Amino acid sequence: MQSVMIVVMGVAGMTFGWFVYSRFIAEKIYQLDSNFRTPAHELNDGVDYHPTNKYVLWGHHFTSVAGAAPIVGPAIAVYWGWVPAVLWVTLGTIFFAGVHDFGALWASARHKGKSIGALSEDVIGSRTRALFMIVIFLVLLMVNAVFGVVIAGAFVGTPGAVFPAWSAIIVALIIGQLVHRKFNLVVLSIGGVIALYLSVYAGSVMPLQLPEQMFGLSANGNWIIILFVYAAIASMLPVWVLLQPRDFINGMQLFVGLILLYGAVLLSTPDISAPAFNDRMAEDAPSLVPLLFVTIACGAVSGFHGIVSSGTTSKQLDKETDARFIGYLGAVGEGSLALITLVAVSSVALAATPEMWHEIYDRYGTAGAGTFIKGGAQLIANGWGLPFSISQTLLATMVVLFAGTTMDSGVRLQRYIIQEWGDIYNIPLLRKGILATLLAVTCCLLLAFGAGGAAGSGGLIIWPLFGSTNQILAGLTLLVITVMLIKLGRPARYTMIPMIFVLITSSWSALIKLKEFYLAGNWLLVTIDIIVVITTFMVILEAASVISKYKHDN
């Protein structure tokens, strides 16, 4: 019954955020204008810039930012106890993530769809842009390299997810063509979801596997290469052909998955076996503050969201007033996924007794997506009576599809960054889409196989830096939005307070990690961590200088 209380309180908070707080931000702070001509119309090229129905664009945005992170982060962070995790997911979604994602989308749309790194030059200065884009590229490199490992591992560990994951691409291609021809969206949504769930059932009875060894690589390594070949092709297609419809269908699939999970809680009313605050942590466990706030990244606030908002979503925004629905409600959707993840890994569906729960969570970082799949599948089986195997395949497919859509968007975003470098430094070759895409994919594969060997798991080597680097990027994005608001003469405290909090906790975390990497003699991570910390400090100084000069002149 405790799980119902968590769900009710969390959903009530996010409902307040959507109906009250986001409306205030839209009307009084960002001051959305329905007559503003968005970049999707002004620069429409039918490839990257393309006016899009807000429901379809919400699906793209939501599933691109969701990935596996709002599942993995909360599943790990509950180690400190469910109370701090639930509080941060709920409050972070309302006052941090929603304002951040919504703000990045609005700011980019007001600057011709520029990425948050490129528009930082307009808002703060050219040196800031160069520094900012280094952090963005590192975050994208981490996300793409690691999500390739996550998906490959899911395909090897849950072969039932292979068929529905690839079937979703075929369904998306068909739907993309029909949407482009103005076919009824409701009919397409229903048909797409039915087709997707039929493929989930087929996958559960027809698992597909690659040979353990092929071309000198393990199955895991071969899947990583296949995934990056696909991501390279997908990132060069017009957004309406595959990216939008795939993300939209995945959004509908997640919507159904959330109904199943939340409904299962209400139907089975499971108790919580996890402690409110964990008093049995291992001696070497990291401290709750500041690590909680970088472990639950995408479940509360995430710099990657700002890259997506300003990278792909802003280029497809039909009306500026749609930004609230897409940006803020996308964050609410992500928060709701993080919330139900916390319930799945905290309840008796995962561990029947507190003692069993402590056996699973004996150390920090031992849980993850697999823990969510197991707990969530049992929760659905208990609540709805579905066979555990089908429930497990359904949730594994959901994780794979989310990680896949994040890879699609991530490679496209890396291509944008490289092309922007071509514009900034006047290197015509880098402006070419094919070359920029090949460079993006090559960087990811070099990291995957150069550092990780035949298994292709090299991305995991720099992954320990993702939490702090990603949150530092969120703080810097809020910094750009804050400076923009100050220049417009609007109240800036609604972005400044979250900015200060995120920058303090993430920089603190980066310094803690720096000490760990130094003591372990991991000089690669020491070097990258120092670069990120120094870059952050320099951007903050640049922004402070701009604000001081602006206030002096006005």
Textual characterization of the structure:
It is a single chain. The chain is an all-alpha fold. It has a single domain, classed as Amino acid/polyamine transporter I, CATH 1.20.1740. Helix content is 74%, strand content 1%. It has helices spanning 2-29, 39-42, 54-66, 69-77, 82-109, 116-123, 126-157, 162-180, 185-205, 219-236, 243-268, 288-295, 303-311, 322-346, 354-360, 369-384, 388-424, 433-450, 459-462, 466-488, 493-520, 523-553; strands at 213-214, 217-218. It has a two-stranded antiparallel ribbon with strand order 1-2. Helix 7 crosses helix 22. It is globular and about 65 Å long.
Summed up:
With 554 residues, the protein is mainly alpha-helical.
Fill in the keyword field for this structure.
mainly alpha; Amino acid/polyamine transporter I; 74% helix; globular
SSE arrangement:
Layout (H helix, E strand, L loop, with lengths): L1 H28 L9 H4 L11 H13 L2 H9 L4 H28 L6 H8 L2 H32 L4 H19 L4 H21 L7 E2 L2 E2 H18 L6 H26 L19 H8 L7 H9 L10 H25 L7 H7 L8 H16 L3 H37 L8 H18 L8 H4 L3 H23 L4 H28 L2 H31 L1
Antiparallel strand pairs: 1-2
Helix pairs in contact: 1-5, 1-14, 3-11, 3-14, 3-17, 4-14, 5-13, 5-14, 5-20, 5-21, 6-7, 6-20, 7-10, 7-17, 7-18, 7-20, 7-22, 8-9, 8-11, 9-11, 9-17, 10-17, 10-18, 11-14, 11-16, 11-17, 12-21, 13-20, 14-16, 16-17, 17-18, 20-21, 20-22, 21-22
The neighbouring-strand order within the major sheet is 1-2
Kindly report how far apart the N and C termini lie. Answer: 57 Å
CATH architecture: Up-down Bundle
Tally of structural domains: 1
- Proportion in β-strands: under 5%
Overall shape: it is globular
Q: Count of helices?
A: 22
> How many individual β-strands?
2
Helix content: over 70%
Low-confidence stretches: none
Order of helices and strands: HHHHHHHHHEEHHHHHHHHHHHHH
User: Structural class, from secondary structure content?
Assistant: mainly alpha
Main pleated sheet: 2 strands, antiparallel
CATH class: Mainly Alpha
| CATH fold assignment | Amino acid/polyamine transporter I
Rg, please? 22 Å
Mean pLDDT: 90
